[in-house]
Design a protein that fits this description.
The structure holds 3 protein chains of 3 kinds. By secondary structure, chain A is an all-alpha fold. Chain A is built from 17 helices and 2 strands. Chain A starts with a helix and ends in a 10-residue tail after the last helix. The chains are: A mainly alpha, B mainly alpha, C alpha+beta.
């Protein structure tokens, strides 16, 4: 038929499909020919690693869901059945359990990359905000997932966190009863958490797709923060970055395997191997490590409602980053003051995480409060101030390729740079 | 001042300082026994120790503590034969039914059954033990910080109440138990069981064997997990090195 | 530098290319093999698990079953009919002319010990459980079993004699582990 030949650039089956649904053109554009800055460092590996981890979590999750029973009488036992009787069930469970931790480690590094190199700035504001949405969905998913084995920490963690909503005036108690589907965390709660835990990851997939669409609009940022100016600045995604991503994947899998096979319970809490007992509260209720900084902020505030609001604010403040930091220069490599505050912020997050695991008494309270104060100052005070007062560096390279070239020949001189 | 290197050093020290244990600082006590044969990357269970440990569980612990996540057929994992397991299972009675007359009836346990509990339910267990519930032991090694070391220390940690310690009724002093008072009296002593492989059944030996057995009940997949782990990581290291080679080759001529 | 012999360069680059291709192919091969093994391990989780396999065999004690009596046991989720046949029932089964049977089979081929008939109690038509195990049940026109769903009649050897069912009642794999005990599956 004549029509086909006019539109076809490719031959055969792929051409026939592509004319009608341009998936091959799409994949080519985004994964093969895609012009990518040639100076990306290993911190740019974490996006693809996050995507791969998401796939791993969905595959292992679906296979686990085939064997799990979401009923308070049977849940704990069904997980033990998976561990003991299902072929390779222990492997499936440990991959899923440790995969969650790996997912958060990767996403945190991915976010810190964005913070350091100014990836949230114009024109990538929506790309960044979609990322924050993904983070929120991940946190909700992980929280509900941890409840499913119905251990002591599952139950009590769920109780503590859902109880927080009672802090809201007037409607608080109704909200909590509504969330629980009853008067305490019980079977209705477990059932709905199972359903939502299965559902949310697919919402994440959708937002990731949008995240990628937003990315390809302007392409990747790069360590200099300077825009791509010509073809000299970029290389095609394939084979250069596909190959680099594969290598990064190899390293990631080694770390992941080390955890799964040799320290599968290192990041977990022994109390979750005790079946949930509504009559006995564990001595120290601790969330999983990736929630600890937020838990610390929650407990740092003496007022219940303020604590809840501040905890949510700690994530929501990220949405406003593109407007809190308006400095013309993107990359912290060329912002010596911002850089110092950034590293302080990184250390502050670790301190928050550590203090979140400590009992809320004595000196830990003071440390939590100071660390919380710095957390919010960094975003709400330091960034806007620096936007106004930090001088634009003399060393800013004129283009990516000049930066790469000068790096090659001479690490010290800045003569090749032009303001 | 805050250069990259010093920042990384600070962060590493902070991360190392994170302590997962649930003991508060004032009660910190060193656990004993750290070189179990199943520890480490190449760890394996000592099957003869597991079998002795099973004997200890059966004759000493099983009167109060259940093992409900383990099936009798799982005992092939400690080296028992199918026939041995069949006769072990046959020593226990389970409730089954209803039969055609609508009644529940008792029958001998089969290898496919789970270990029979000493009590019919938790309330009965409490009643028989002054209100204290003897916990199921299937996962005990994973359910306590310190794992096998903690269990071993606990079994060897019974002492007389020290001077001035406020002892509660019906409790016993144990150095390793949180709060130092435990409702269970010391369950083992020299020669409380007789091993049929001739091993001297000292208190310490018994503690070691039953702890090994419980480490197995908590993680029966341990040997397979570690051996598969070695192969997987070896493969991944090889593959990653090759991937690095490929990456270098591809990037060689850029700039 | 420009004066490199172009011929040498060509040979050099083609040798390089071969080395490079070898590395690519081997690496890709290893990666795919590793991926395949991993994928299989995950899919294998859907195969019957150890607890299911443990119930794949059932032992039945035949001694309480008197002559003329039947017992139903569950095996792999299905009912198994065990009948302790009377002499009459055995003779009826073996004297039948098999040439006119809907599904031809001798009684001999369907039993290990003629006193005991062991068949899967699922009608081969559309899967109902035939009547005939309990006292008072209809046994059909051939004194075996009768399926009330669509009217299939089975004889004392469990063979289909009348009605829509196409095949005889299935004989499960079983063996006598002693005179009184059989293991099914």
């Amino acid at each position: 038929m004549k029509k086909n030949n006019e539109n076809q650039e490719q031959k055969g089956v792929t051409g026939w499909i592509d004319t009608r649904l341009p998936i091959f053109t799409f994949m080519n554009h985004n994964l093969r020919d895609y012009p990518t800055p040639k100076n990306l460092n290993y911190f740019w590996n974490f996006g693809s690693l996050a995507g791969i981890t998401l796939v791993i979590m969905i595959v292992t999750g679906i296979l686990l869901a085939m064997q799990y029973t979401a009923n308070t009488d049977l849940a704990f036992e069904s997980v033990e059945r998976i561990m003991r009787d299902v072929n390779n069930g222990w492997l499936l469970r440990y991959i899923h359990m440790n995969g969650a931790s790996m997912f958060f480690i990767i996403v945190f590094i991915h976010i810190f990359r964005g913070l350091y190199y100014g990836s949230y700035k114009y024109p990538r504001e929506i790309l960044w905000m979609l990322g924050v949405v993904i983070l929120l969905l991940m946190m909700a998913t992980a929280f509900m997932g941890y409840v499913l084995p119905w251990g002591q920490m599952s139950f009590w963690g769920a109780t503590v966190i859902t109880n927080l909503f009672s802090a809201f005036p007037i409607v608080g108690d109704y909200i909590v009863t509504f969330l629980w589907g009853g008067f305490s965390v019980d079977n209705p709660t477990l059932s709905r958490f199972f359903v939502l835990h299965y559902l949310l990851p697919f919402a994440i997939v959708g937002v990731v797709a949008l995240h990628l669409v937003a990315l390809q609009q302007f392409g990747s940022n790069n360590p200099t923060g300077v825009d791509v100016k010509s073809e000299n600045d970029t290389i095609p995604f394939h084979p250069y970055y596909t190959v680099k991503d594969y290598f990064g994947l190899g390293v990631f899998l080694i770390v992941f395997a080390g955890l799964v096979f040799f320290a599968p319970n290192f990041l977990g809490h022994p109390d979750n191997y005790i079946p949930a007992n509504p009559l006995q509260t564990p001595a120290h209720i601790v969330p999983e490590w990736y929630f600890l900084p937020f838990y610390a902020i929650l407990r740092a505030v003496p007022d219940k409602l303020m604590g809840v609001l501040l905890m949510f604010a700690a994530v929501l403040v990220l949405f406003f980053l593109p407007w809190l930091d308006r400095h013309k220069v993107r990359s912290a490599n060329f912002r010596p003051f911002y850089k110092q505050f950034f590293w302080l912020f990184a250390i502050d997050c670790i301190i928050l995480g550590w203090v979140g695991a400590m009992p809320a008494e004595g000196i830990y309270v003071l440390i939590a409060r100071i660390a919380t104060a710095y957390y919010f100052s960094f975003f709400l005070i330091i960034m806007p101030l620096l936007s106004k007062f930090e001088k634009v560096s003399d060393h800013l390279p004129s283009s990516i390729s000049s930066a790469v070239l000068s790096k090659k020949f001479d690490n010290n001189t800045t003569e090749s740079y032009v303001k | 001042m805050l250069n990259k290197l010093s920042i990384k050093i600070i962060m590493i020290f902070l991360l190392l300082g994170i302590d997962n244990s649930s003991q508060s600082a004032s009660e910190k006590i060193e656990l004993i026994e750290q070189n179990w044969p199943f520890n480490g990357v190449f760890g394996r269970f000592d099957k003869s120790s597991l079998q002795r440990g099973y004997l200890v569980y059966k004759e000493v612990c099983a009167s109060c503590h259940g093992l409900k996540h383990v099936s009798y057929r799982d005992l092939t994992g400690i080296g028992l034969t199918k026939d041995e397991i069949k006769s072990i299972a046959g020593e226990y009675i389970v409730m089954d039914g209803p039969n055609d007359e609508g009644e529940m009836f008792e029958r001998e346990a089969k290898p496919s059954d789970k270990f029979v509990n000493p009590y019919e339910n938790d309330n009965q267990a409490r009643l028989a033990n002054n209100g204290a519930y003897p916990p199921d032991l299937s996962l005990m090694v994973k359910a306590r910080a310190g794992g096998a070391d903690y269990l071993f220390s606990l079994l060897n940690g019974y002492k007389d109440f020290p001077e001035g310690f406020e002892a509660s009724d019906g409790m016993y002093y144990n150095e390793y138990y949180p709060g130092k008072q435990i409702a269970m009296p010391s369950p083992i002593m020299d020669d409380i069981v007789e091993y049929n492989d001739g091993t001297d059944a000292t208190h310490v030996q018994i503690a070691r064997d039953v702890t090994s057995f419980l480490a197995w009940t908590a993680e029966p997949e341990l040997e397979e997990r570690k051996s598969l782990g070695v192969k997987t990581i070896f493969f991944l290291i090889l593959l990653t090195i090759m991937l690095l080679g490929v990456q270098r080759k591809v990037w060689k001529d850029v700039n | 530098m420009d004066k490199i012999d172009s011929k040498d360069k060509k040979i050099e680059s083609s040798v390089d290319e071969d080395k490079r291709d070898f590395l690519f192919v081997t690496t890709a091969g290893l990666a795919i093999a590793g991926g395949g093994v991993t994928l299989w391990s995950l899919i294998d989780t859907m195969n019957p698990s150890k607890d299911v396999l443990a119930l794949a065999s059932t032992e039945v004690d035949l001694s309480p079953i008197e002559e003329g009596q039947s017992l139903t046991v569950m095996w792999r989720g299905k009912p198994i009919f065990i009948r302790h046949r009377t002499k009459e029932e055995i003779d009826d089964a073996s004297d039948t002319d098999i040439t006119n049977l809907i599904h031809k089979a001798t009684d001999e081929s369907r039993v290990k010990n003629p006193k005991w008939l062991v068949v899967v109690g699922v009608c081969t038509h559309l899967g109902c459980v035939p009547l005939g195990q309990k006292i008072g049940d209809s046994k059909g026109d051939f004194n075996g079993w009768f399926c009330p769903c669509h009217g299939s009649h089975y004889d004392t050897s469990g063979r289909i004699r009348k009605g829509p069912a196409p095949l005889n009642l299935e004989v499960p794999p079983y063996e006598f582990v002693s005179d009184d005990i059989i293991r099914i599956g």
